[in-house]
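Researcher: I've got a protein sequence and the SMILES for pyridoxal-5'-phosphate. Could you write out the 3D structure of the bound complex as structure tokens? I'd like something to compare against our soaking experiments later this week.
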Amino acid sequence: MKNEILDLVAQFADAQTKEFIPGESIVQYTGPTIDKDEYVAIISTVLDGWFGLGAQATKFETEVALRLSKLHGVYVNSGSSANLIALETMKELYCKEDKTYKIITPAASFPTTVNPIIQLGFEPIFVDVELGTYNMVEEQVLDALKDDDVIGIMYAHPLGIPIANTKKYYELIKQKGGFLVEDCCDALDSTYNNGDLVGKYSDAATLSFYAAHHITTGEGGMVAFSQRNAANIARSYRDWGRACFCSGKDVLSSTGACNRRFADWLGNGVITDHRYVYDRIGYNVKPLELQASMGLAQLKKLDDLTQRRKDNYVCLNAFMKSYEKYFILPTAPEGTDASWFSYPITIKDSAPFNRADIVEFLEENKIQTRNFFAGNLLDHPAYKKFDFDIKYSLENASIITNNTFMIGVWPGLNEEIYQYVFKIFEEFFKQRGL
Ligand SMILES: Cc1ncc(COP(=O)(O)O)c(C=O)c1O
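Model: Sure. Here is the predicted complex with pyridoxal-5'-phosphate in place.
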């Protein structure tokens, strides 16, 4: 019966392909690229009746970690949770003194790349970014590193554009005895340092599998490490703070990964199950096994999905070049190759129109746009409440808040759809006599 159900599911999924109708279909700025493989994988796992994390999650953790040049992955329920768990782990490993440590981070960011810094009692040192590459301003990072209280650097590769200096920043922070966390949520498969996958030069690398991202499990995230010890700590924070670090088939064994599951763990002479011993103040940010099965199906397509993102960038960028008079176009720095999340456009001050004008026109014509996330976080009410010590000008970050928007390059778009997008851009300029 299971096979019959899965056959029907595959037929249903096959029937979902939609035709693009110019002016009627929405040109999404991003979306999931899934077909029958993902539907069948999910339903098959559901029909197996096992919902908690299991063998598929373990496989997914290992395969995703390798794609970040790491050895150990810990699957969580979102990219935001991945950042939180990554930083909890770093705090435990690196912050040994009773003082307020500082972390360098760009002000133009996704909120939950920065929020764990605040939530876990660190002090952020905000740096600005360059327009176009959206990389952190190097002089500011190097200056901030001189501060003795700096223990970490934490940033996202913005919209898939790699932070070109990651190896250099990693080496510098290691010299100080600190850590680097790379948020790769928007940058799976991007490379830096002439061909190294993002994730390589850091103590922890994170991903999001929300439907907008390079591969999706609906919701979900991963935090990956080179060291098993770090992964065990992260797993503990993920799983209520428990001491037990069993995963995969160890969970099923009566002795556990530690080989002494039943022992005097609490030091009170009573034999206790390690699975119910807690040595951290933890969370529960676990996803579901059925999501992992979807993730494994997505991973098989990743090479192709990455190529399509790159091709779409090339196609869109070639067209946009004619409007460089008005726009700062996105570029990946030398030595890097971006697997683009989206295509950010910053409107120059000299342009005879503003962001609202063009965004409204595109949206009216069914072309989705988005802001470049928060732009400068410090422009937002939640962050204004804090008395942060702002050391550097964050001018470009605020330009992003006000003048940047993004459109799609995800694999759901193609040459035919772009012809429509180009026509609408041309109409916008024509209507203004430009
Ligand atoms: C750079 C970055 N970091 C973190 C996140 C958070 O991921 P999630 O939505 O899975 O919590 C996102 C989400 O888009 C993101 O773009």
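Model: The two ends are 63 Å apart (CA to CA). The mean pLDDT is 97.
Researcher: Great, I'll pass this along to the crystallography team.
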